[in-house]
Amino acid sequence: MIDLAQYVDRCSTGYVHHRYAESLAQVGTPRFLPQSRGWILQRSIPASEYQDAMGCYPLFACEDWSQLDRDLDDIGDGLICLSLVTDPFGECDEHSLRRCFKDVVFPFKEHFVVDLSEAGPYGTHPHHRRNVRRALRDVRVERCQAPDQYLDEFSSLYDNLIRRHNIKGIPAFSRTAFAGQLQVPGLVMFRAVHQDATVGITLWYTQRDVGYYHLGAYSDEGYRLRASFPIFATAIEHFAASGHRWLDLGAGAGIGGPASDGLARFKQGWSTGTRTVFFCGRIFDSAKYREIVEASRVPATSYFPAYRRGEFGA
Fold first, then answer.
1. Which tens digit of pLDDT belongs to each residue from 117-149?
2. What is the pLDDT of residue 256?
3. Rounded to an integer, what distance in angstroms lies between the CA atom of residue 314 and that of residue 254?
4. Where are the domains of the chain?
5. Do domains 4-108+278-308 and 112-275 have the same CATH topology?
6. CA atoms within 13 A on the CB side of 4
7. Are 241 and 222 contacting, i.e. CB atoms less than 8 angstroms apart?
8. What is the distance between the alpha carbons of residues 108 and 101, in angstroms, rounded to a whole number?
9. What is the pLDDT of residues 26-58, one digit of tens each?
10. Which of 90, 192, 219, 224 is most buried, judged by most C-beta within 10 A?
């Protein structure tokens, strides 16, 4: 007889699968929510005997959002609080989220999305179409049938991304994390190649009829050749042809970053619209939460949980 988590994993992919949660083991211990059938990460609170939890980065996804409130009501007294960012294609709205999260719910970011029944592969903006055509003179793009063969190459490219953008904290994924993420069912990898050298790689996850842009990284030559343009065009064409309805491209850079940054403009040029993701938080033990915040001596902040301010490098 198999348990519920094993049963769910037989038919789940992407951010819902246990292997994705396990790839973040350096952040926290995966904990299964049996009613909603999703995963959170349980973590020790620094300088404390207590624990809290977070949704898997960058998004919390589950199979049944209508049951999330039951999971949180039954969470027990072992956690101080929980924080997470919602899946833009999750079956939830602000009203239902407030039933689950008694303390913090607010619109966090607007994710750029692509309705694949409307979009062409070269994007919605003329600038993107021009850049695709120009880059294809020097770059070819292929779907990688065995993504784990490119673990070292992707780790090296991502190290370049970390250096260029001074990425710190949880988003600075390790090679160990990538080794796990490349094994998650539903992963799709695209590779941009120039003169037989890999100059860019993007990772995507699929869940039901949605493809999620997970991560992308490029060499200095890849940036020069604008390899991101043909690699995204190829991805859009692939997901449309494979029967997917939507793509989630994510948002701009940073925590609540401006919608006008370069990454946001790039994603907007492919998108047909946006969807809101929410930041949610719930305190399970108010007295202990106040105790930990006071002991941490952090300045007044709207960050939740307050004692973890700065964990995403912001």
1. 986 666 668 889 999 999 999 999 999 999 999
2. 52
3. 7
4. 4-108+278-308, 112-275
5. yes
6. 10
7. no
8. 15
9. 999 999 999 999 999 999 999 899 999 999 999
10. 192
Two tokens at 233? 């065009």
Distances (CA, A) of 186 to 10, 17, 138, 300: 12, 9, 29, 41
Q: Which of 44, 34, 40, 33 is nearest to 54 (CA)?
A: 40
CA neighbor of 233 nearest in space, from 111, 143, 154, 146: 143
Q: What angle do CA 311, 88, 264 make, to 5 degrees?
A: 70
Q: What is the CA radius of gyration of the chain?
A: 20
Tokens of residue 243, six digits:
């029967």
140: left (phi over 0), alpha (psi -120 to 50) or beta: beta
Give me the sign of the Cα torsion angle 15, 19, 24, 25: positive
Domain 112-275 has CATH 3.40.630.30: yes
**4-108+278-308 is classed CATH 3.30.2320:** no
Say which DSSP state 313 is in.
-
CA–CA gap between residue 107 and residue 100 (Å, rounded): 15
User: For residue 233, what are the β-bridge partners?
Assistant: none
Is the full-model pTM beyond 0.90?
yes
- Cβ atoms within 10 Å of 102's Cβ, excluding its own: 13
Q: Would you state the structure tokens that stand for residue 83, as one six-digit string?
A: 């924080």
Q: What is the mean pLDDT of residues 179-193?
A: 98
Residue type, 55: G
Given a contact cutoff of 8 angstroms between Cβ atoms, the answer to whether 80 and 288 are in contact is: yes
The pLDDT confidence band at residue 77, using thresholds 50, 70 and 90, is confident
Q: What does the chain come to in residues? A: 314
Q: Are 168 and 313 in contact (CB under 8 A)?
A: yes
Strands 210-218 and 246-250: parallel
